[in-house]
């Protein structure tokens, strides 16, 4: 442990049944509120070193993750606790020195055991081509989702008969091997999607680069593709999918669809130790693809990263706010 945050807290503290250490918050008067004397400050530990601070009065929050530099908000918190800047800088440097050790430990702990059977790509599947006039309605659909033919190796089957010639095919790959697909039909009939996929599959595994520090995980494919993320392809996380995500050895952030069905995944994500992000995208924005269409890719990405958290209380408040809007 770089420093013991609890030993820096003045006055008495109490541990609640939910695991929070409660005490008089030290942030309120610095944020323009009255001093707290009702133990509305709280700290909860994710493990022996990582913790989150939250004030249930003024709403200030911060956290510490071993292997990362100390954030601006946590610097404020430590400063309010009487720690001088030079000491904070030393702790921040010590934390960063642990980064390689932590990454090595994660890689050693999470070695991918899952594999999927490679399949032949059907001969009637051809690459989506912007220059082929027969592909115009496929291109129009991809464009309506804020994408281009260059964003992913989409396939189509224009020579098929019936519904099959009116679909965009998203191939599934794992370790760069074709293992299945999902078809999005464009004729307005149900089902809209038909998929051929192995159990426990995570879409987008091959989109993840070695230098990525975070993996964003969505429910749907069209949420994942524009943000180079992964997709669970349903509103739950299986043990097999959790294993695949952990094998990436980076921070995992789950972004649920903002509807009653999608929000059920939050508790499961936290149980697996993953962070969750519920950005305030406003009314009528149900998922990340809607947000990309309204705000653009970079603003959507930033909104996700800025609100990702392990804080159950904060997420529950956000969930209730979303449900009220539905």
Any idea of the CATH class of the largest domain? Alpha Beta
Give the number of DSSP strands: 14
| Gyration radius from CA atoms, angstroms | 23 Å
**Which percent band covers the strand fraction?**
15-25%
- Based on secondary structure, the structural category is alpha+beta
Morphology call: elongated
Largest sheet: 5 strands, antiparallel
- Which regions contain 5 or more consecutive residues with pLDDT less than 50? none
**Total helical segments:** 11
The overall average pLDDT, rounded, is 91
Distance between the termini: 43 Å
Return the CATH architecture of the largest domain: 3-Layer(aba) Sandwich
Please explain how this structure is put together.
It contains eleven helices and 14 strands. It is of the alpha+beta class and 326 residues long. It folds into three domains: 5-109, no CATH class; 113-198, no CATH class; 202-326, Dna Topoisomerase Vi A Subunit, Chain: A, domain 2. A five-stranded antiparallel β-sheet has the order 1-2-3-4-5. A five-stranded antiparallel β-sheet has the order 6-7-8-9-10, covered by helices on one side. α6 (221-224) links the parallel β11 and β12. α9 packs across α10. The longest helix is centred in the C-terminal third of the chain and has 14 residues, at 312-325.
Summarize the topology.
Blueprint: H1 5-8, E1 14-15, E2 21-23, E3 41-45, E4 51-55, E5 61-64, H2 72-80, H3 85-97, H4 99-109, E6 126-127, H5 136-144, E7 155-156, E8 167-174, E9 177-185, E10 193-196, E11 214-218, H6 221-224, E12 230-231, H7 239-246, E13 251-254, H8 265-271, E14 275-276, H9 288-295, H10 297-307, H11 312-325
Parallel strand pairs: 11-12, 11-13, 13-14
Antiparallel strand pairs: 1-2, 2-3, 3-4, 4-5, 6-7, 7-8, 8-9, 9-10
Helix pairs in contact: 9-10
